[in-house]
């Protein structure tokens, strides 16, 4: 190791230098601080050993001068003095000294200190190499991680349906800003109001997923599809023996499944009055009891609700608890109907046109002026969902570069045909005279829709206008029928 020794006492300096050379080190000697600073700048010295009290420039001043030079962090400076007062030692350490020694120097102490510095310098060089390698590898890994994160976000967006969102009007941009704020605080419940088809569940998913950085569960319940008894067990779960025919070990509820994530309650006004108080307890106290249970269970879950009715009117009519309403309204989003944001109609239609043209391998690219006028003239009672279905029907039935009025025959006298679908023509549809196998018909429709969307259950559920849970129930029933041979 190259060592620079600085001491105005020649005998002391030469004695220390000879000892260090015997230990195998290369030593350069200087008689004062000024000379040492010049020699230091011209050489490479991992260790500097300097006296504190010297004429012209003290050892502490030399240390400060070295600390201002480039690469100073790689040099360990040790100071020694014949005046072993604590104040001098503290000044040396505060100035950045590695250590200090007292004169006359103890050779064993000097040898041990030199060995520690040699090890320190070795570790510093290894750390520098590793740091440079790490930074290089980190840069490469970061690039790969960003690409992977982008790919995963895209996959997540496709799975959740958030890849099909079109935010164009100022009203919708403001709503997205609201969702971003609500996303940051899981303790705030949110109520989303809007007509059927305005995309309330999509807004709920935006609140939950944010910028796709969460992998927590998003669990949804359609409150209108459940009976009061079934709703309670679905939401809270039940203990063993609570129900005849229930599982022998009991079952967790949706609150358990949504732990750490979000529970989305669609059509919240359909919750029976007697259960609204229990939901309020979950929101306020963050705890609940399972059906038939005596043990309190902590509820780590964000609550988001949606309704297509006037919730304030429901409260005034005594159909919805006032205290629950105001607790939910801490976070409040009102999604305007499509007819009130006409700027969105053509942009959404164009987005859906390109989306379905790509999915169904069709040639559609633009919308003709006549078709645009027809789309703008419609009142869209079914909102975005209706517009999406209209465009999907047209792309499914036809193939052209430009979407034209004749492709929009799903309209009749300016009104969309009720219950129309890509696979059914109601003008020629008739029911059999004796009986109609409804379950078989529904099964076939679901299987064809699933095949149309290449097995993507999320897209299939949105296409059919049902929740994913409802779709899973249908698929489970179909699977059971297939296994039983019925």
Can you characterise this structure?
- With 486 residues, the chain is an alpha/beta fold.
- The protein is built from 18 helices and 18 strands.
- It has helices spanning 10-22, 33-42, 59-67, 86-94, 107-160, 170-183, 200-209, 228-236, 254-257, 273-285, 311-316, 322-328, 342-359, 369-377, 383-397, 438-452, 457-464, 468-484; strands at residues 2-6, 26-30, 47-51, 76-81, 99-102, 190-194, 218-222, 237-238, 251-252, 262-266, 287-288, 297-298, 302-307, 331-335, 366-367, 402-403, 411-412, 415-416.
- The strands form six sheets. The protein has a five-stranded parallel β-sheet, with helices on both faces. A five-stranded parallel β-sheet has the order 7-10-13-6-14.
- Helix 2 runs parallel beside helix 3, helix 6 (170-183) packs across helix 7 and helix 13 runs parallel beside helix 15 (383-397).
- Residues 155-160 and 412-428 have low confidence and may be disordered.
Short structural summary:
The chain has 486 residues and is α/β, with parallel strands linked by helices.
